[in-house]
Design a protein that fits this description.
Elements: H1 2-9, H2 15-31, H3 36-53, H4 60-76, H5 83-94
């Protein structure tokens, strides 16, 4: 996730960033099967945001909030943590809402 966080931190808060992030999660899940579940959950969170605003007006404030929340969430994930830490990360991702 460090690479994803580094990439994300250099991006704009537009929908294209979120769509590309989903593609990067798919690649990570394919190359690291141990992270596949977390990648899918995170992709679902991002996907619901993209679907909500695809071809709809996206207020700048909403985009910035969603981007900051995603950046903070990705930064907090520990792919090499113990089972309790990983479960806590999964639960945090599963309950995350980027824009509400």
């Amino acid at each position: 996730m460090n690479d994803l966080h580094a990439w994300l931190s250099q991006q704009h808060h537009g929908l294209r960033t979120f769509q590309t992030f989903q593609q990067k999660l798919e690649t990570l899940g394919q190359h690291d099967p141990a992270q596949r579940g977390l990648c899918r959950l995170l992709s679902g969170v991002v996907g619901s945001y993209v679907e909500a605003f695809d071809e709809a007006p996206l207020p700048v404030d909403t985009a910035e909030i969603a981007y900051r929340r995603l950046l903070t969430l990705v930064e907090s994930l520990d792919l090499h943590g113990n089972a309790a830490r990983r479960l806590a990360d999964i639960n945090r991702v599963a309950t995350c809402e980027l824009w509400r």
